[in-house]
Specification:
Number of strands: 0
Strand content: under 5%
Largest sheet: none
Number of helices: 3
Radius of gyration: 16 Å
Helix content: over 70%
Structural class: mainly alpha
Order of helices and strands: HHH
Length: about 70
């Protein structure tokens, strides 16, 4: 039973990472350096915590990029 739970958790983790990678591709950043991507994400994390309205602005951009994807 414990092995099944561990296996399920690993599968869920792998699926989440694949989906997150897909977002990088969808954003048109597939060929950027990993350091740039991480830097952008760290900066983003800081900005959405400090700047009022930044989260909503970015959510609107993301929703438009998804279009009919249902996200």
């Amino acid at each position: 039973m414990a092995r099944s739970t561990t296996s399920d958790a690993r599968k869920k983790d792998a699926r989440e990472k694949i989906e997150l990678g897909g977002l990088i591709v969808k954003a048109g950043l597939r060929y950027e350096k990993r350091a740039l991507l991480l830097g952008a994400l760290v900066d983003l994390s800081r900005r959405i915590k400090v700047e009022a309205g930044e989260r909503e602005r970015l959510m609107a951009i993301g929703a438009e990029a998804f279009g009919d994807d249902g996200e």
